[in-house]
Amino acid sequence: MSPLTPQSSPLSSPFAHNNQSVRQLMFKVQLAVIPALLVHIYLFGFGIVIQWVLAFATLLVVEFTMLKLRNRPVRPFITDMSAMITATVLVFCIPAGAPWWIIVSGTAFALIFGKHIYGGLGYNPFNPAMLGYAFLLLSFPVQMTQWTAPTEILDYAVSFTNSLHLIFTGNLPQAALGANLDMISAATPLSQLQIGLTQGQGVTESLTPIALEAQTHYQNGSVINGFFYSTAQFFSLNSWAWVNVAFLIGGLWLLAVRAIRWQYPVGFLSSLSLISFIFYTIDPNTYPPVDFMLLSGGTMLAAFFIITDPVTSSTTPKGRFIFACGIGILVYVIRTWGIFPDGITFAVLLMNIAVPLIDQYTQPRVYGHK
């Protein structure tokens, strides 16, 4: 078992059982997010492209500056693509129409305080992207909850020019109805559910606005009975569900090329599904069904692209599964009883803290030891 190169230490993760480098691994991850990127552009406009360009420009400046301050060679470290993965994950976590300084400050914080302050890749205990997202969520809660409504609700696509204008000025040009960000924003399904439950409504009543959108846009759709009815209805209107499916497709490809370990998605999705099923069975009026939990928020992004970070997760096979299961349970707890609609960020950071303990108790037995 050899450490990945060029930036990792023989005493620290990430480790690989083959000859792939950090650059090769990160390149595969970048390829795997392309389906989600294309779906996101189709459903929410070109804002995510502009945010990604801003994040990339920021990471170049931050990486160059920090490597110089740490007396490290710039080229081999800045081209390993690890910082690009951090920026890419962060871009998918913020609203597409968020002000330009949101992604700039978030990317800079993630790389400086989530990576370089600990000595670079291989030494950081916390997932940098999640640390940067937590910083943004706690510091700028208003800007971080203004999610651009999908095209099916707005009835027009937010073009590249309009997105550029929105991100840098906070308003759309007159050609786009002179709207501001508030006028084209909409609550995500998780936020809608949380608001409804807080007001004493049941799950069905809380999601009534979403159901009405489905009825408006898909009146000729067929009705499917049983468990798959809620899924079909959910898909018929929920753009966020399709983004999750796109992440699932990319994640399955990563598993096929052995870029990530199966314990991560299996442990996370199975624990989240199991606890969702238990509580939904107990009280379906208060707790949402399994399909809603799996296809809302950043579930699939977390399962295949966030918790699979080899540096900040457990290094043992059993440990990876326990790590992933812990995140799944915490995500459900935070989504259901916490103040944050999604909860993935804080679930990941909390389990990052537990990694040394998990590794200590899940070390495999030495070969030949009785």
Query: What is the H-and-E element order?
Result: EEHHHHHHHHHHHHHHHHHHH
Instruction: Please give the alpha-carbon distance between the first and last residues.
Output: 23 Å
Helical segment tally? 19
Kindly state the percentage of residues in helix.
55-70%
User: How much is the radius of gyration in Å?
Assistant: 21 Å
Structural class by secondary-structure content? mainly alpha
**How much strand?**
under 5%
Mean pLDDT: 82
Gross morphology? globular
Task: Count the beta strands.
Answer: 2
Q: Which strand order does the major sheet show? A: 1-2
**Domain count:** 2
Largest sheet: 2 strands, antiparallel
Report low-confidence residues grouped into runs of 5 or more: 1-12, 15-19, 214-237
How would you sum up this structure, described in words?
The protein is mainly alpha-helical and 370 residues long. The protein folds into two domains: 171 residues, no CATH class; 126 residues, no CATH class. It has 19 helices and two strands. The two termini are 23 Å apart. The N terminus is likely disordered.
Structure keywords:
19 helices, 1% strand, globular, single chain
Topology readout:
Layout: E1 2-3, E2 15-16, H1 22-32, H2 34-44, H3 47-69, H4 74-78, H5 82-93, H6 100-114, H7 128-139, H8 151-154, H9 160-169, H10 189-198, H11 203-206, H12 208-217, H13 227-237, H14 239-256, H15 263-282, H16 290-294, H17 299-306, H18 317-337, H19 344-361
Antiparallel strand pairs: 1-2
Write a short abstract of this structure.
The chain is mostly helical and 370 residues long. Helices cover 62% and strands 1% of the residues.
